[in-house]
Amino acid sequence: MVLALAEAVTMEQKLRRWNYLERRRQHLERRKAMYEERIERLRDELTREGILSAITQKYEHMLLGLPSAKDKIYDRQAEHLVASLDALEEYIAKYDSIERELRSVTREIEEIEDAVACLEPRYQQLLTMFHRDKIPWRDICETMYISKTRLYEMLETAYQMMAI
């Protein structure tokens, strides 16, 4: 009995975070798309400008001992290449971090949705409106044709059903 009450509190706490998790997932999806775009842009820039081939040519000249009048140009290109590669590495690390957090948030949301899906449709509707959508209790009562007292009774019943 004590274990069931502890689980009910845990699920109730998860339900309270549902709205936050949904908003967090949307935010992370936008950030992920932004970093995908940045990474793609940097990769395109590196290949389009031919920076890699220019640096390769400089080092071929150096290895062969050939003099080059364009050392300053190559050095600027090398600095630009290093800065671009550092930025690319940083973007990829941030992207990976965002993707890990997004997977975690998505798992938590799916866990909540699975638990809610086990309930009767009326209770599903109530929990979704109350916790995920954060609809005010007056509007929920009006939509579901119930009183405030009945709303909170139904919430308690739902929490107890989810704990079993």
UniProtKB/TrEMBL annotation:
Q: Which UniProt keywords apply?
A: Coiled coil
Q: What is this protein called?
A: Uncharacterized protein
| Pfam hit, one | DUF1492
Asked if the keyword Coiled coil belongs to this entry, the reply reads yes
Classification via InterPro entries:
DUF1492 (IPR010861), RNA_pol_sigma_r3/r4-like (IPR013324)
The UniProt entry's coiled-coil ranges are: 88-115
